[in-house]
Write a structure and sequence with these properties.
Elements (H helix, E strand, L loop, with lengths): L3 H11 L31 H14 L2 H8 L5 H16 L4 H36 L6
Length: about 140
């Protein structure tokens, strides 16, 4: 009969992944469920891993990060500008038209900035008034 330490060693070996790392050594991760592979080496989960990689890659793309920085009300302006740039580069939009679109976009952003600054100023004045200070 196996002693306690031998039984626990046998159990831990059974729970170790049967996969092989890129460097040729055996994977040291633990098995998931009743299979003999960890998440990274389980052939049955290859499609799931690929989907997770694609999702992670899409969310870390420069365009996705930049889009998150743009306020929601200005995202349509950004999309229009990007489409205009692509069209100008491809030659499907005349330079004069692209310039006009850029000018209108710049005006939209300026109006948004003034509105945002006005809201912030009103909030600061209200906070100052609530603290007993005088608003300008």
């Amino acid at each position: 009969m196996a002693t306690e330490p031998e039984a626990s060693r046998s159990k831990s070996k059974q729970a170790q992944c049967a996969g092989t790392r890129k460097d040729g050594t055996r994977c040291t991760a633990r098995v998931m469920g009743a299979g003999s592979f960890c998440y990274a080496h389980d052939p049955a989960r290859a499609a799931e891993r690929d989907a997770a990689r694609r999702k992670g890659g899409a969310n870390s793309a420069t365009a996705a990060r930049a889009e998150k920085l743009v306020p929601a009300v200005l995202r349509p302006v950004l999309i229009t500008l990007l489409q205009t740039l692509q069209g100008a580069k491809a030659g499907t939009i005349e330079p004069r038209r692209a310039t006009a679109i850029g000018s209108v976009a710049r005006a939209i952003v300026a109006v948004y900035q003034v509105g945002t600054l006005e809201e912030r100023l009103q909030a600061l004045e209200a906070a100052q008034a609530a603290q007993g200070g005088s608003a300008a």
